[in-house]
Amino acid sequence: MKLEVEIISKEIIKPSSPTPSHLRHYQLSFLDQIAPMVYNPIVLFYSHNDALNTATISNTLKKSLSKILTHFYPLAGRMNNKNFIDCNDEGIPYIETKITNYNLKDIIQNPIPNELNRLIPFQLDDITNIAFGIQLNFFSCGGIAIGACLSHQIADGLSFFNFLNSWANITRKLIFPKPIFDSSKLFPPKNISGFDPRSGIAKENIVCKIFVFNADVVENLRAKYINFNPTRVEALSAFIWSRYVDVIYNDGVQRNYGVVHAVNLRQKMEPPLPLESFGNYLRFTITIPKMNSGEECYGLAKQVRDEIKKIDKEYVKKVQEGKEHLEFLKESFDRVIVKEELVVFNFTSLCRFPLYDADFGWGKPIWVGSTALNFKNLVVFVDCKDGGGIEAYVSLKVEDMVKFEADLELLACVNK
């Protein structure tokens, strides 16, 4: 059954005070320029609070949103070509809806990422000059879902959560850390002609499903490694990749594989950057798995760690220079997209991010979810609310998902 979403109102929320003239031109960094041209989504779910009615909630959120936009002023501006944002205070789209055919618990007990797309303000691949939008969804049971979309060309996931938590804090009249907008100074913009930020984006024939791995399962996967103490993400990503390869490519044909992990650069800088640094501060490792050990799953985790170690201050310096890294990106695009030389599988982890901190005055979220993303062979890891288990959002081609979700070894590990 599809979510029935009825739009109640649409408006534009503008900053409560004008952006100073010297901040009106927000320059995108090199890492912003090469970020995927999509919106990043998130949906925060809150249980019913009898003390608040929908009008009170709506007015409170709109007022505090207007206030927080003065601090995150680029979000209320408009993209001007691919290089900068005109911080003209035009504001952000704000939509309110009501959900009539689903209760909050129905969604949380059986979340379907493709259906959650109805709870956010934009289609993820329909990127425009608007950087940010909010959709406030009221359920008939009294539950609330705040759906938000942030252009990936502006910022990464940590920046997104820092904004949401700052918005929640200003709603409750609490102090919050101010964002730092230094990305274009640290990674000056470049001429990126010949590189397409839309590469890898897919829409048709892609399905996303959530697989939940409880804390004990994750620890059991970690325990299978001898003389190596992998992180939860290292162990689980190696396991998921091994299941994908075994069930999709079990025809005996020799192939080249690439396993990609996103890495936060903030702590790789010299000196390390504050967590409040706003923008895109991530790059990717590409691990070419060695397939001759007979224990590909366990060997991969160690290889991934070795590749991530290569992202150090010297690596960051090369990215800041830009030319060599841009050529690497173009070459990777040619190998993966054009020539199809590599079967690439991508991992992004939001584990240890402050997902569940946004309290607007009626408690913290009872669940934080994502919609389906427009990339194939992508896994996004998110902490379960208890902090020990991991939810894996797996996006595959429809025919691949049929095989993947039927794998007995996988099914033995996921929460039923």
UniProtKB/TrEMBL annotation:
The GO terms this record gives for MF are: vinorine synthase activity
* Entry keyword set: Acyltransferase, Transferase
Cite the Gene3D superfamilies for this sequence: Chloramphenicol acetyltransferase-like domain
Identify the InterPro entries for this entry: CAT-like_dom_sf
The keyword Transferase is annotated on this UniProt entry: yes
As recorded in UniProt, its EC number(s) are 2.3.1.160
Q: Which family does it belong to?
A: Belongs to the plant acyltransferase family.
Which protein are we looking at?
Anthranilate N-benzoyltransferase
